[in-house]
């Protein structure tokens, strides 16, 4: 189905519309062979609280952004290559329902659909795109993924020492290895996590010890250097600095349109166009 839609006029119009909605803040999305498979609003679990984000699923990438004006303008565009993605379904828990994890080597996060049916549709379409990509490229799915960050409001005290209470002065930080919310003292070390950054990142003391032991066992002469995190005690290197789509106050919408997936709709549209052309030629 996707192969048949590659050169369709409807697909080209849709991609152009997505580019226009992001404006100059987004990167060009039209590429040879790219197809817009579907779009819709999902609730993304951000560092501070769940927030509504507009998602666009293409046959090779997943794009999402902040909603400025619904269906008209988005910003903070994020582009995720689907070859790097692994999905993991989440069990319903309290108010968090119909969710799953989107895992990549550089960033992992949870999203939630409005209904169980929408979750099933999103996951099925994303999985199919990933499967087709890997089959065509012959690549293997990635084996390592970044940790999912624990939301700030789920930790009132440091998850490492269990003692330090978070205040305006004692700010929350996230270990980039395990995702735990930790205090500055318990995350005063850095480690080069190659999948996430070219620079050493903040890690908690427990992960630092585990990584050090692993390096000793491997005896790798090219192992990354380790140094103390600058400004750890004063709140430097804040976790929020790395979650660039977490800076607005737009929360999850109670009402929104159902997600739209185009494969079936295009079949009907193209059939109608074909029939119209035939009728016009008679």
From TrEMBL:
Pfam families listed in its UniProt record: FYVE (PF01363), SOS1_NGEF_PH (PF22697)
Residue spans of biased composition, Acidic residues class: 239-249
Entry-linked SMART domains: FYVE (SM00064), PH (SM00233)
Gene3D superfamilies, per database record: Pleckstrin-homology domain (PH domain)/Phosphotyrosine-binding domain (PTB), Zinc/RING finger domain, C3HC4 (zinc finger)
Domain FYVE-type: 152-212
Residue ranges with Basic and acidic residues bias: 250-282
Identification of the protein by name: Pleckstrin homology domain-containing family F member 2
């Amino acid at each position: 189905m996707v192969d048949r839609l590659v050169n369709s006029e409807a697909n080209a119009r849709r991609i152009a519309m997505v580019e226009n909605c992001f404006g100059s803040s987004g990167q060009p999305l039209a590429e040879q062979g790219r197809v817009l498979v579907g779009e819709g609003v999902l609730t993304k679990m951000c560092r501070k609280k769940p927030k509504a984000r507009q998602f666009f699923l293409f046959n090779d990438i997943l794009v999402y952004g902040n909603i400025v004006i619904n269906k008209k303008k988005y910003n903070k565009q994020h582009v995720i290559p689907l070859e790097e993605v692994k999905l993991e379904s989440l069990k319903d828990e309290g108010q968090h329902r119909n969710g799953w994890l989107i895992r990549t080597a550089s960033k992992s996060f949870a999203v939630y659909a409005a209904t169980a049916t929408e979750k099933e549709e999103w996951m099925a379409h994303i999985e199919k795109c990933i499967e087709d990509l890997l089959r065509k490229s012959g690549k293997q799915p990635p084996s390592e993924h970044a940790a999912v960050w624990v939301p700030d409001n789920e930790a009132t005290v440091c998850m490492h020492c269990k003692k330090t209470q978070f205040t305006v002065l004692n700010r929350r930080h996230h270990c980039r290895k395990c995702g735990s919310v930790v205090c500055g003292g318990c995350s005063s070390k850095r480690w080069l996590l190659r999948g996430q950054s070219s620079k050493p990142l903040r890690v908690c003391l427990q992960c630092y010890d585990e990584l050090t032991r692993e390096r000793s066992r491997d005896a790798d002469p090219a192992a990354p250097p380790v140094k103390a995190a600058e400004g750890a005690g004063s709140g430097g290197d804040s976790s929020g600095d790395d979650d660039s789509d977490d800076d607005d106050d737009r929360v999850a919408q109670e009402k929104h349109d159902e997600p739209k997936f185009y494969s079936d709709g295009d079949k009907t549209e193209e059939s109608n166009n074909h029939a119209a052309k035939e009728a016009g030629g008679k």
